[in-house]
Write a structure and sequence with these properties.
about 25% strand; 12 helices; alpha+beta
Length: about 425
């Protein structure tokens, strides 16, 4: 029976074992050959009397006996008695998986994605990401949320925008969903009250920046019977604290590969909440002190300055900016007064990872606001029907999975946190 690399140290020296994996490294010493075998759990050292006819990244199966060796990874090696090549890799691969990926440019990494994902350091990104999704879902279920799955083929944009991918659908055109916004609200109004979804979202934005993807995974939350965006901010505090604690517990080795860490619960609890106008003023003052230009909006520079301020003044990598002006938020955002809304962004380590807020649940107010956003009631009949049927005060938010992963690990480009990223230029593999 196959034994994983991480479990070999626990086997007795007289126990014949089988191990399978990829040839990570070969060291021929003349008379003895050491092979580092890689599997999903880690690496193990193999010892053979002579170098076999294999190449790096070939997939092999070996039989042998475990033996203690303090110099071997994990303190145990396998003395090989038989080896079988299951699949031979070509000798001239684009780069060595066992090499330093920091020396490779992101285009090389992504152009050769089928090979680069074999790197333990790159796979660590997606180990962390898997824990984020698991923790996100588990914590919300513990808070009475129900997971839903909604269609990604929609009749139009939830936010009334034009940045949509059109697709042929029999004899008509549909769009790829920017967000499950409408469907989340529908299920809150159905009586579920609290729902979440983990699913792809699509934005036909013609950008090419280190912080954007045209297809990304959205961690969406919606809940009913809230008073303001502060209910959502407190919910996200608890959610992020749980996610970070799970990553710290389950992914210590993955974090170490990137020299990364996650905030503890106290740091998340200490995250400040600052109103939009005050945030812009503060960011502008901090920019001026640094010799920079005046800031007029919560732009990337402002996000960076605000996170630096939160770290210095509140010992937190996280800051919430709320009370965004109505002109900066979608039509469905609930107003707190004539100029401000019950909405917020969460900024983490210099980057916005969350946008959310309370939604409009009053039909008459919904109808009144549409002209201000250049929208017509006849084009919003599904949304109108939802509110006409009776809808509780509600709101929600969405976390970009790739952005959160990238911020945790300190990745320079969000594309590094997408298994197979899609942008204006890249549509394969």
């Amino acid at each position: 029976m196959r034994v994983l690399a991480k479990d070999i140290a626990g086997k007795g020296a007289d126990t014949s074992i089988e191990a399978c994996g990829w040839v990570h490294r070969i060291r021929d010493m003349g008379g003895v050959c050491f092979i580092i075998l890689r599997d999903r759990s880690g690496i193990v050292q193999l010892v053979l009397n002579e170098k076999p006819d294999i190449t790096l990244e070939s997939v092999i199966k070996v039989q042998g006996f475990p033996a203690p060796n303090e110099k071997a990874p994990g303190g145990t090696e396998i003395r090989v008695s038989a080896i079988e090549v299951l699949s031979r890799a070509e000798p001239d691969l684009p780069f060595q998986v066992n090499g330093d990926i920091a020396k490779l440019g992101i285009e090389t990494i992504l152009d050769n994605r089928l090979l680069s994902v074999r790197s333990p350091k790159i796979r660590a990104v997606f180990n962390v990401q898997a824990t984020i999704v698991e923790a996100f879902s588990a914590w919300l279920r513990s808070q009475g949320f129900t997971e839903i799955k909604t269609s990604k083929l929609v009749w139009g944009g939830t936010e009334g925008g034009t940045e949509l991918f059109e697709v042929e659908y029999f004899d008509r055109k549909l769009c790829l969903a920017q967000s499950p916004q409408f469907y989340k609200e529908a299920m809150v109004a159905s009586g579920m009250e609290r729902v979440f979804e983990v699913a792809p979202a699509y934005r036909a934005e013609k950008h090419d920046t280190p912080r954007h993807l045209n297809e990304y995974i959205s961690l969406d939350v919606e809940m009913g019977f809230i008073e303001s965006e502060m209910d959502l901010i407190e919910l996200e505090r608890g959610l992020l604290a749980h996610i970070f604690s799970q990553v710290a517990e389950k992914n210590a080795a993955d974090l170490a590969l990137w020299n990364a860490s996650v905030p503890n619960g106290e740091a998340v609890a200490a995250a400040p909440v600052i109103g939009y106008e005050d945030a812009v003023k503060l960011a502008s003052e901090l920019s001026a002190k640094a010799g920079g230009a005046r800031i007029f909006d919560i732009n990337p520079e402002a996000e960076r300055f605000l996170c630096e301020w939160a770290k210095e003044q509140h010992s937190s990598d996280l800051v919430f900016v709320n009370e965004f002006p109505r002109r900066y938020r979608p039509f469905y955002t609930y107003p707190s007064d004539a100029n401000r809304t019950m909405s917020f962004d969460a900024l983490f380590r210099g980057l916005e990872i969350t946008t959310g807020g309370r939604r409009q649940h009053n039909y008459d107010a919904f109808v009144e606001v549409l002209p201000r956003f250049g929208l017509k009631l006849e084009n919003m009949q599904n949304y109108a029907a939802l509110l006409r049927c009776g809808c509780p005060p509600h709101g929600g938010f969405a976390i970009g999975l790739e952005r959160l992963t990238a911020r945790i690990l300190g990745l320079a480009n969000v594309k590094e946190a997408s298994l197979f990223p899609r942008d204006r230029k890249r549509v394969e593999p």
